[in-house]
Amino acid sequence: MNPQHKIAVITGGASGLGRATLEQLIKVGTKVAIFDLNQQAGDQVVSEFGSDNCLFVQTDVTSDSSVAAAFELVVEKFGQVDICINCAGIAPAKKVLDRDGNAQPLSDFTKAVSINLIGTFNVARIAAQFMAKNEPSGEANERGIIINTASVAAYDGQMGQCAYAASKSGVVGMTLPMARDLARSGIRVNTIAPGIMGTPMLLAMPENVQESLVDKIQFPKRMGLPSEFGRLAVHMVENSYFNGETVRLDAAIRMPPK
After folding, report:
1. Per-residue pLDDT reduced to its tens digit, 84-141
2. Does 226 sit behind a cis peptide bond, omega within 30 degrees of 0 on the bond before it?
3. What residues are annotated to the active site?
4. Is residue 188 part of a domain?
């Protein structure tokens, strides 16, 4: 798919990997709608890139009505939806039992799965509904592409990451069946599983923590750049034979237990 003049929705697009992906897409001529809870950050992005190129919609990805209404606003402004990239998520850390032997509150696990997995599916299903109405384009006659975000924790979950790893494993697990479900509609589905990425949240951690994380990376010996995530997403959009796949973007890291 040629991303120029296409319309993308990015959840979590006001910061981190989502914002980096927005920047890469705008560079290649895509117009982007941001679904995020952070009104201030979303308004700032629109101010920076212009209302002709961006739309911010305050959206709760776990709410069916909020997501459906957000997509309606996108179509009202831009006419259609061609690309959906799910970056919204949380990364809680809590062990199954604490030091006193008390069980982790079920609500903590439920919240992670609700946002990271159910929220991803919720947005993807509505995106597919709108994409299916598009006219086929390009040599592949495709109508859209959905790119979800997992994590290396889906494969190498560390101590304290039961909820996070389970939610991201679910994202990986639904990639192929979702691609199969949507193949007849000309919609592709892929997933990116990033490793240690240099997002503002991670860079705010103490220097010794950052050094410890980088030490586990093979090569290149540094954190991943959010722009590298964004460029991979753009490549997935452009390469029409890229479908039903999860790609680790992690410089060959394999996470230890802790």
Report:
1. 999 999 999 999 999 999 999 999 999 999 999 999 999 999 999 999 999 999 999 9
2. no
3. 164
4. yes
